[in-house]
Amino acid sequence: MPPPRAGRKTAGASKEQKMKEEEIVWQGPSSQIINFGTYFMCGLLACLAVLIFIALGRLVEHPARFLVLGLLLVPLGAVFWKWTVNRCRHFEVTSERIRITTGVFSRRTDELELYRVKDITLIRPFMYRFWGLGNLVLTTNDSSTPTLTLEAIPNVQNLHEQLRKDVETCRERKKVRLAELE
Questions:
Q1: d(CA 75, CA 44)
Q2: Confidence of residue 117 (pLDDT cuts 50, 70, 90)
Q3: Whole-prediction pTM value?
Q4: In three state form, how does the secondary structure of 56-90 look?
Q5: What is the C-alpha to C-alpha distance for residues 62 and 53, in angstroms, rounded to an integer?
Q6: What is the CATH number assigned to the segment(s) 23-29+92-174?
Q7: How confident is the model at residue 8 (pLDDT cuts 50, 70, 90)?
């Protein structure tokens, strides 16, 4: 068996190949805290429906009062739908791109290459800070996605720093420069 020639790839991956491999930085859905307002209002409506059922039970012994309990289906259905929609929106941030998969019945996946990102803004609303969450707003050169918001992301500060580094690395690798015209 002849020895391997110079320049020929052997069993181990080279340093350059490892550098080019895409790594997952973060993945998951937004926190359910983004639906807090809906959950709160639906909870109030459910309590109101139960109170009306109890009050009608004391005044009238008619089977129609059970229709009021049917009103519970509206807020419960709304809560279930909002939870499902948020759960079915999945973000995957890698060292080269961001993938957003959305849809409950039909799925759609959009990708944004990191070298297209012009600016990253970190926003930590008061309500989100209680749970250690924040938003990342990315301004891009992509015509289909000029602005992308990753909403209610945990550990957002570290993701912001990692994204900033990965954007610069992708630009250097692809030899892309942003020209800012004023």
A1: 9
A2: very high
A3: 0.77
A4: HHHHCCCHHHHHHHHCCHHHHHHHHHHHHHHHCCE
A5: 11
A6: 2.30.29.30
A7: very low
Residue pair 149/136 in contact by the 8 Å Cβ criterion: yes
* CA proximity to 127, closest of 43, 34, 28, 30: 34
Q: Which two tokens stand for residue 44?
A: 């109030």
Place of tokens 């992509």: 142
Q: How many residues appear in the chain? A: 182
Contacts of 116 (CB under 8 A, 6+ apart): 140, 141, 142
Tokens of 26: 């973060």
Asked whether 154 and 32 are in contact (CB, 8 A), the reply is: no
| Cα–Cα distance, 115 to 4 (Å, whole number) | 37
Domain spans, the chain: 23-29+92-174
Between CA 129 and CA 140 the distance in angstroms is 26
